[in-house]
């Protein structure tokens, strides 16, 4: 009864969100112009290693559902995953989820996404200590997906109730992700599209409500029939063309302090590349994979021009040990350091004693 009720709610929610999406006017956000930015954090070690974004990788990794709900498949039935990320400056975040498949109804998943910003000192205007306070944000993920037309095409929706708390300020919100995926096992091709974070604040921190970080993404993943490689390309922020941030160092002046003369083709190429995230997987059997990624936008925004290093590049690996799949991902954000992502997955059915 619970599954049937959840199915009816998510089915009606999917229809509602699709109607809203068709009638939604195009709008964009730049940094600092939307709230709940933690929704864009990458939890999965595997996706982090592939550049931080992936909406078209189709296999039984339940972590992929966070990025595109239509990637939720029957093969994820009874899968459980745990993710932990030690971020910068004492911040940490993570994600845990569980999937269940009901024949003739569809696939379901539930997960919790959190970010803990740590403990802060509270002081008055004179700098006198008034104690401490904490800051954190949470988003519940309720996912439903189902194949339509044929088994190659899948649609999914993710409903995300949100709670955010900063000292004495708090906010409630509701967001939706709607995705579609096409997977052809014969050609080893997967296409994915997702509209992320459509929704609104139910209650705001102050009297003014803020926009959510709405984004459109599309991607393709292509495997090779006779080589153990799988390539992925994601086009992020389809809703906005210009993702550049104007700074004197990167856009207006060269290293000599003179005004730079940048050609039109270079400007076009730079803007195009900021949308693209590249990933490469090297598959060694069914029990090991090695991943590489490149995020041009991250590199351009976070590098130190005199010494860019490996900013924007990422790597990682995953392997199976007994009933567990363990993954690690490393993303280089700045010359000062990067982030370490850890994922643990298992299928609870493997613990059942076979009759």
Overall pLDDT score: 86
Q: Please work out how many helical segments DSSP would assign.
A: 5
Whole-number total of structural domains: 1
The proportion of strand residues reads over 45%
Low-confidence stretches: 12-30, 248-259
Task: Tell me briefly what this model is.
By secondary structure, the protein is mainly beta.
Structural description of this entry:
This protein is mainly beta. The protein has a single domain, classed as Beta Barrel (Porin). The chain has 5 helices and 14 strands. The protein has helices at 2-23, 45-49, 248-252, 264-273, 296-302, and strands at 79-86, 92-102, 106-123, 129-148, 153-166, 169-184, 189-203, 215-223, 229-235, 276-284, 288-295, 313-321, 324-334, 337-347. It has a 14-stranded antiparallel β-barrel with strand order 1-2-3-4-5-6-7-8-9-10-11-12-13-14. The longest helix has 22 residues, at 2-23. The chain is globular and about 65 Å long. The protein starts with a helix and ends in an 8-residue tail after the last strand.
List keywords for this structure.
mainly beta, 14-stranded antiparallel beta barrel, globular, Porin, about 350 residues
Helix/strand layout:
Elements: H1 2-23, H2 45-49, E1 79-86, E2 92-102, E3 106-123, E4 129-148, E5 153-166, E6 169-184, E7 189-203, E8 215-223, E9 229-235, H3 248-252, H4 264-273, E10 276-284, E11 288-295, H5 296-302, E12 313-321, E13 324-334, E14 337-347
Antiparallel strand pairs: 1-2, 1-14, 2-3, 3-4, 4-5, 5-6, 6-7, 7-8, 8-9, 9-10, 10-11, 11-12, 12-13, 13-14
